[in-house]
Structure formats: C-alpha cells, structure tokens
Amino acid sequence: MASTRCELPGLPRRERCLVMGVVNVTPDSFSDGGRWFDHGRAVEHGLRLAEEGADIVDVGGESTRPGAPRVSLEEELRRVVPVVRELARQGVAVSVDTMRAQVADHTVQAGARLVNDVSGGLADPSMARLVAKTGVAYVLMHWRGHSHDMQRRAVYTDVVTEVHQELRTRMEAMADEGVDPAQLVLDPGLGFAKKPEQAHNWQLLAHLDRFDDLGRPLLIAGSRKRFLGRLLSDADGNDRPFSESDDATLALTVLSAAAGAWCVRVHDVRPSADAVRVQAAWRTGGALLDDQGRGEPVGRGGSGR
Fold first, then answer.
1. The 18-24 sheet, strands edge to edge
2. 13 in a domain, yes or no?
3. Which of 154, 146, 145, 226 minimizes the C-alpha distance to 193?
4. Fewer CB within 10 Å: C terminus or N terminus of the chain?
5. Residue of 111, 103, 77, 93 whose CA lies nearest to 21
6. DSSP 26-90
7. Nearest alpha-carbon partner for 138 in 172, 90, 89, 104
8. What is the pLDDT of residue 66?
9. Measured at the alpha carbon of residue 190, what is the angle toward residues 185 and 195, in degrees to the nearest 5?
10. Does residue 99 contact residue 74 with C-beta atoms inside 8 Å?
C-alpha cells in the first residue's frame, strides 16, 4: 500500500498513520448529528480534537447517512465556511467534507488543506477542475450514488475487483481534467453502497493490498458505521448502537495502520491517536523515539507540517 510517509500538498507528514477527527456541522448525521451544529461549539470541538491528537480535522455540513436528504448550497456554505476559517486561523489542518465544487472553493479560500469528496467527483462535474486549479489535496472515494438510493446500487459480483476498477476509472477521469495524481488520496467507501449483510466492507478491509497498484495512499473511514454494529449484534439480533462501537472502531484503526493506511477518519480521536503511535513504535522497533523513549507529543497534531 502507498505508505504513511506519502507527501501530500499542505498536509502533515508523519512516519505513521494519520488520524482525521470528525466535526459534523449538521442536525442529522448518523452518529452525532446536532451536537456541533452551532458554529462556536463546532470550532471548540475541532480544537479539542486537535488537542487530543487529530492530525486533520474534517468539517462537513451535509449528512451522508443512508437516506439523508441533500441541503442547499447556501445552507452548506453557511454551516461550514466560518468553522473552517476559524480552525484554520488557529493553526489546525482542516479538510472539508463536501461534494460541491463551490463549497470546496470557498473553504479552500478560507484555509482548508484537503477536500474530502465522498462522491469522488461524480456529484459535481466542476469538482475536478476546481481541484486541478487550486492544487489542493483531494480524497477520491468510491461512490455509486446519493444517500437516498446508494444501498440499492450495492450489487457486486466481486466487490474488491469492482471497487478497485471504479477507483482507477475515477483517477483517470480526474487526470483528464488536469488533476495531478500526487494530489489524490483514495477511499474505498466503507458503508457507501456496501451492504453489511453481504460483508462488502469486510471483504474490502481484508484485501487492502489489492489497491497497492493504484499507487496512492488510502483513507479508511469506518468509524461507528453500521457494519461494525452489525458485527457486534446482541443475542436477539439487535445491532450494537453507533455510540457503543468506539472500541470496535479502535480495533479498525490499529488494523488499518498495520496494513499501511495513510489515515483513519474517526469520531473519538484520543484512543486512535494513541493507537497509531503505539503501532508506529512497534513497527519501527522504537526507531522514532527520542533518547528518553518518548514519541511525538500528542495534541494540536494538525498544526505541524
């Protein structure tokens, strides 16, 4: 897999897997919708995530949970631009979670260093041109449609082969629009047009090495998602609630880091920030430690380059 040491424009470079913390400035996200809807609270939460060890803070103004309706362009801008601007002003490496080129444009101008597009450029034909023009780092996720019907499109003969090919096709399309491949991060799209009952997500995770030949780093975004809750269902067949799957998310962080992921996207940052440091010390035999056996400081991880 393209390694954790990959250079991406404007983003922290570490000798370990990075941690991306989530700030949902939405009333309806599946895990924490409404908690950070106020701009001030969203900024406070983003700063707290950075203090807890998030290398990147991902700000989103539109829920992508299954069945979620879209919000207007004006509302998405109202939600995210002030939060991105203030976090960036305070030295946090900010990404914006958006499918709209206009939102990406405004937030990059406000200081965002990464555009995290769950549609991989399919939702807005202008996105590739915007990414090419600005030179911003860009997460290209595997996607088969908007939230209201994405699970209907989760039909695969071989999910790993098909996701791999569809990501390659999107990479080529972005390059045709002038995007430098060095700007790209790939995301297999866990939970997006992937059915827990058919183990699509687990098949992708078990075969992350199949994406090596695409030559780009991987973002793994499985935090609190339904396939974890389904795995941990109780004796009556009830899925584990989203709010009680952080331990499973932590296991996913450790395994993703060990598999060579560039970054994990999580809601509960501190345990994952600790875990990636432990994994890096284990992997390198302590080569990254100082002469007192200490690793890099935890906290305000996004402010470094």
1. 184-187, 137-141, 114-117, 94-97, 56-60, 18-24, 263-266, 219-220
2. no
3. 154
4. C
5. 93
6. SS--TTTTTTT-SHHHHHHHHHHHHHTT-SEEEEESS--STTPPP--HHHHHHHHHHHHHHHHHT
7. 104
8. 72
9. 150
10. no
Strand partners, 265: 20
Say what the pTM is: 0.93
Distances (CA, A) of 82 to 9, 25, 78, 275: 23, 11, 7, 31
- Residue 304 pLDDT exceeds 50: no
Assigned domain for 42 exists: yes
- Identify the CA nearest to 142 among candidates 158, 156, 163: 163
Residue 4 has pLDDT above 90, yes or no: no
d(CA 273, CA 297): 11
DSSP 3-state of 229: helix
Could you tell me if residue 166 is inside a domain?
Answer: yes
Q: Which of these, 106, 84, 115, 95, lies nearest to 55 by C-alpha position? A: 95
**β-sheet bridge partners, residue 94:** 57
- The residues annotated as belonging to the active site are 225, 265
Q: Is the pLDDT of residue 174 over 90?
A: yes
Q: Please report which confidence band the pLDDT of residue 69 belongs to, taking 50, 70 and 90 as the band edges.
A: confident
Residue range of the domain that includes 282: 18-293
Residue 20's DSSP bridge partners are: 56, 265
Query: In angstroms, rounded to a whole number, what is the distance separating the alpha carbons of residues 177 and 184?
Result: 13
What's 268's domain CATH number?
A: 3.20.20.20
Asked if residues 295 and 282 have their Cβ atoms less than 8 Å apart, the reply is no
d(CA 150, CA 135): 30
In a domain, 8, yes or no: no
For the chain, what is the domain count?
A: 1
| pLDDT for 35 | 58
C-beta contacts of 227-232 below 8 A and 24+ residues apart: 227/190, 227/191, 227/194, 227/196, 227/201, 227/202, 228/252, 230/196, 230/197, 231/196
- Please tell me the distance from the alpha carbon of residue 234 to that of residue 254, in angstroms, as a whole number: 24
Q: How confident is the model at residue 301 (pLDDT cuts 50, 70, 90)?
A: low
